[in-house]
Each structure stands twice: as structure tokens, then as C-alpha cells.
Amino acid sequence: MDQATKSAETLRRQIAATEEELSRLREQLAVIENEEVQNLKGLSLEEGPVTRKWPLELEEYKRYGRQMIVPNIGIQGQLRLKAASVLIVGAGGLGCPAAAYIAGAGVGTIGIVDGDVVETSNLHRQILHSTAKVGMKKVDSAISFLTSLNPNLRYIAHTEHLTPQNAREIVEKYDLVLDCTDHPTSRYLISDICVLLHKPLISASALRTDGQLIILNSPPLPAGDASGGPCYRCVFPKPPPAESVVSCGDGGILGPVVGTMGVLQALEAVKLITAGKLRAAEGEKAAEASMLLFSANSNPPFRSVRLRARRPKCFACSAEGGLTLESLSSGSLDYVLFCGVTAPVKILRPEERIEASEYEKIMEERKGKEHLLVDVREKVQFDICSIKGSINVPFSTVQGSRALAPQGEKPPWIPESLAPDAPIYFVCRLGNDSQVVARKLKESGLDKEGRYIGDIKDGLKAWKEQVDSSWPEY
Amino acid sequence: MESEETLPIVVEFTGGLEMLFSDERKHRLSVPARDSKGDAVTVGWLVDYLCEEIMKDNRKEMFVLDGHVRPGILVLINDADWELEGEASYALQPNDNILFVSTLHGG
Ligand SMILES: [Zn+2]
């Protein structure tokens, strides 16, 4: 290792250590800020009159006045909000706006569950977090924001992910649950525990420019009672294949889109609480279940569709279902197994793959002429950054066969000037799609003249690590 | 005898499914009113028709798995869950709107 690399390494280590220290300090600060607020609340209570003339504090009339004078809310609605407790699972793009409006509205007790820490890539949509809170636990960051927004409420931090083992203990203390998570495993788990503990559930999700919202298990009648609202399993008895599940990190997400869905969750929570619908009324039957679809680019952007009622053979909410609190908390229900995991893509053999650093050497030796580097990311990503000399053939066009020529013919994107034995390398973000495309090209007979076709292992992630640290990772 | 009669319908895709159908969310189609056996066409028939005639993408398994619409896709007939309408056996009517929604999971 030369001197420059060594000192860079030392600096990197120092930065990492300082960042760790920073995040520890921020967490300490959040805890102290929280305590300060709790103390303030204690003081104002002690100083207040022993018997009060009005059911709310004077400050609360001012704070909630504008919503209390809305018909359907009124003083009764406000008192219901104050007495209610809401659990928000996930402090991300849905949970942040939902929590802000729920705290603003004066819901007396708010719990937030999340095991993640704030990252820079969260900030365009997760509005409770801020640049200074990167590295801090999301739950602590959220509660510190909410506390300054509305110090009159009780906030409960659950700084871990919801699991079958802790779900009962966490969820049973609350009246209403909001699913603001981002994966099918948590969606099934949250729905199951809500059915078991008779909690209504407001579930939302978003990706790219689309969002979906459903109110489940409302009224929250016991399993087997057909008058209860359907659960997540009634609507989706089988999970989608793992390969079809796209995350916000892979598919992208617009802040205002997921924000819209989170705000709608808060609205539905306020409606449910102020209408006194946290528990089923005597003889109450579920209203027709519906799902609200939002598509930012459609006209009209909102569409409500009618869903089925409880499924007579639902695993969770029917009398015949096998779901019990014991089976859930003992871990005998494996949600990860149920939803499946995507196996790491292993399509190419080791000799069909090269390291990013190896490709850099090839690039220098061949001066970019006698080989071809094909970047199979979507065009929108290729436009953000690309390796010099590479061409773009998006994965989706290969899937649609549009980029593949008939058997034995050369695809149009291969330059005429490229020698028939010049190697072709594929690259993508992480080294999965590049394998799929390389294999397809080989199957179409493009390597029959002895040309090498392979991909760059671990894709552009490895390019940044091994070759170009200035590569803009997005 | 093969009938020439056709049915005008609207088929829509959302939640990412549009990517399998040339990135078009809304397809105005004119489909045969009778199948090869001369029976009135159903939504089940439409699913096969979409796979064979309309989908350009290779990833059929993202739409149909083991002969059924894959788990995680809701089928809505005129804005109602197809389970309320007889599922795959529902006979298509003129101007029906059939919406395929892939569930989203992001948050
Ligand atoms: Zn159910």
C-alpha cells in the first residue's frame, strides 16, 4: 500500500469513528429532550387546579379549536382523540406524515415501531427526519420532532422491528394500528396480530407514482364473526412471488406520493377515532370494504374499488383458520418463509464474470475500441451516471425481447465496427440483471464466433469500491 | 362457424403491471365475443388473451402463475373485486372495465 492510500484509509477510519460518536451523541440528546418535555408536563399538571371546569386544558382549546369546530369532530371527537392510542409501525415515508398529523390532531398516546436508523436517502420523503439526524434511530428522531410539534402527548418508542415474538406485547396496549411498513412479511404479521388482538388496521403502501390504502379488520370483531371487516389475508390469501416485490430502493418513490398515502392514513385514523369506531358497536356489521388507489399520473388520480368481505375460510379471521396467539408468538408461523426470499442470482459461472478492477485494466489496454461495455440499467439511471464508453440497453427492453435479434442475427445495438471476436461485458447496479442479459445473449448464439461474453461482478457497486471512489452512488 | 362479433372493453393495469404491457396503463380493446368453442368470452379467457395477444414482455410469470392470475394481483370488474362477480367465469359485457392491480409494498 502506498503512502496516499494509507493516509486515506486512516482518514476513512477516523471519519467512521467520528460518525459513530456523533450518532451516539444525537441519541443521548434525544433522550434528554424527551425527559425535559416529560418534566414540563409534570410541572404544569401539578400547578393546575385540582378540579377543572372544562374537560380540556385551556391551551388545548386553542391548539385544537380549528379542528374541533368542524362538524363531526366537536368536543366529543376531541376527547375521543385524547383518550385514544395509536401504534404506527414504520417511521418512514408513510409513518412520518401519518405521525405528524396524528400528533397534530391530539391523539393522546402515540407509539412508533422501527428498528432502522435515518439515512440520507430517506430525507426526500421521510419528513420527520432531518440532515442532522442521519445515523440516529428513526423512532428517536421522529419522537423528537413530534415532541416539539405537540408536547402534550405521550410518545412511546419501540426501537426494534415488529417480530412474531414481540408483536403481542407491543400491539396489545393500543387501540388502532397503522401499517406504514414496506414489505409483505410485515404486512401479513401486522394483519394477523390485529385480528388476534381485535384492533382495526389502516394499511397503506406506495411505489414510484402509485399508492394504495385499505382499512382492515374494521369493525374488529373476533375471528369467525362474519360481520367483522376483512383482514389482509382475506384480500391477499397468498403472498406475491418474492421476485415480483419491488422496493422503493429499486423501483423509486416520489416523496409527495408516499406522503399523500401517509396523510390519508392519518385522516382515516382521525375519522375512525372521532366516530367512536375503535371497537365494534353492538350488532355492527362491516361497511362494504374498499381499497383506494392513487396514481399521480392518471386522470382522475384517485379511484376507489370495492373489495370482498371476510373470506369464509380465511387462515386468520375465519372460524376455521389456524391462527392463534400461541402459534404466532412461538414462531411456528415463519413469515419470511411464507413470503419467500429471492435467492441470490447465480446464473453465470465464475469464468463468465470479471471483477470491476479487471475491467478497468481491459479498458486501459484496449483503449475502448476492441470491446463493448453494455450497461443494462434503465435509461433513467444510465442518464444519472455511466462508465465512459459504455452503451445503454435497458433490462426492460431485453425482457420485452425488443432488444434481442432473431436467433443467429446480431442485435441492432452492436456497432458495425465491433470485431466479431471482440468481447462484450455487461454491467448493472448490483450484478444481477447483467447476468440475466449475458446468459440470454449467449443463448441467442452471439458468442459462437468465440467472442467472450460476461458481466462485471457486483456491478457498479464494485466499480465504486474497486475503481472509482468518486462514482455517484444514488 | 366462427363469429365476427366483437366486444369493446377497457383493460387497465396499475401498480407496475403496466410495464408488462408496453408501459400503457389503459388499453381500449375490441375482443372476440365468442371463444373458439363458440361460448361467450369470460374474464378467465381474457387473461389468456392478454398473455398471448397483448403482452410483449417475456415475463409471463409476473402476470400468470400455474394457470391463474398470480398472487398479489387484484382483478376488478367495473371497480369491484372479481370474487364478488364470479371470478374467472364472469362473462364479459360490452364496455366493461377490467382493472388489474398489483399490490404495492413500499412505504
Ligand atoms: Zn381474513
UniProtKB/TrEMBL annotation, chain A:
Q: Tell me the Gene3D superfamilies matching this sequence.
A: NAD(P)-binding Rossmann-like Domain (3.40.50.720), Rhodanese-like domain (3.40.250.10)
Give the UniProt subcellular location, in the record's own words.
Cytoplasm, Cytosol
GO cellular component annotations of the record: cytosol
Q: Identify the residues that the record assigns to the Rhodanese domain, covering every copy.
A: 367-472
Query: What are its GO biological-process terms?
Result: Mo-molybdopterin cofactor biosynthetic process; protein urmylation; tRNA wobble position uridine thiolation
The record's family statement is: In the N-terminal section; belongs to the HesA/MoeB/ThiF family. UBA4 subfamily.
The function of this protein is: Plays a central role in 2-thiolation of mcm(5)S(2)U at tRNA wobble positions of cytosolic tRNA(Lys), tRNA(Glu) and tRNA(Gln). Also essential during biosynthesis of the molybdenum cofactor. Acts by mediating the C-terminal thiocarboxylation of sulfur carriers urm1 and mocs2a. Its N-terminus first activates urm1 and mocs2a as acyl-adenylates (-COAMP), then the persulfide sulfur on the catalytic cysteine is transferred to urm1 and mocs2a to form thiocarboxylation (-COSH) of their C-terminus.
**Name of the protein in its database record:** Adenylyltransferase and sulfurtransferase uba4
Which species does this protein come from?
Answer: Hyaloscypha variabilis (strain UAMH 11265 / GT02V1 / F)
Automatic annotation (TrEMBL), chain B:
Q: In which pathway does it act?
A: tRNA modification; 5-methoxycarbonylmethyl-2-thiouridine-tRNA biosynthesis
* Pfam families in the record: Urm1 (PF09138)
Residue list for modification 1-thioglycine: 107
* PTM info: C-terminal thiocarboxylation occurs in 2 steps, it is first acyl-adenylated (-COAMP) via the hesA/moeB/thiF part of UBA4, then thiocarboxylated (-COSH) via the rhodanese domain of UBA4.
GO CC, any one term: cytosol
Q: Which domain of life is it from?
A: Eukaryota
Q: Where in the cell is it found?
A: Cytoplasm
Q: Which UniProt keywords apply?
A: Cytoplasm, Isopeptide bond, tRNA processing, Ubl conjugation pathway
* Principal cellular location given in the protein's record: cytoplasm
InterPro entries, per the entry: Beta-grasp_dom_sf, Mopterin_synth/thiamin_S_b, Urm1
Q: What are the BP-aspect GO terms?
A: protein urmylation; tRNA thio-modification; tRNA wobble uridine modification
Here the cross-link named Glycyl lysine isopeptide (Gly-Lys) (interchain with K-? in acceptor proteins) sits at 107
Q: What does this protein do?
A: Acts as a sulfur carrier required for 2-thiolation of mcm(5)S(2)U at tRNA wobble positions of cytosolic tRNA(Lys), tRNA(Glu) and tRNA(Gln). Serves as sulfur donor in tRNA 2-thiolation reaction by being thiocarboxylated (-COSH) at its C-terminus by the MOCS3 homolog UBA4. The sulfur is then transferred to tRNA to form 2-thiolation of mcm(5)S(2)U. Prior mcm(5) tRNA modification by the elongator complex is required for 2-thiolation. Also acts as a ubiquitin-like protein (UBL) that is covalently conjugated via an isopeptide bond to lysine residues of target proteins such as AHP1.
**Family the UniProt entry places it in:** Belongs to the URM1 family.
The name under which this protein is listed is Ubiquitin-related modifier 1
Native organism is: Hyaloscypha variabilis (strain UAMH 11265 / GT02V1 / F) (Meliniomyces variabilis)
Question: Species lineage, top-down?
Answer: Eukaryota, Fungi, Dikarya, Ascomycota, Pezizomycotina
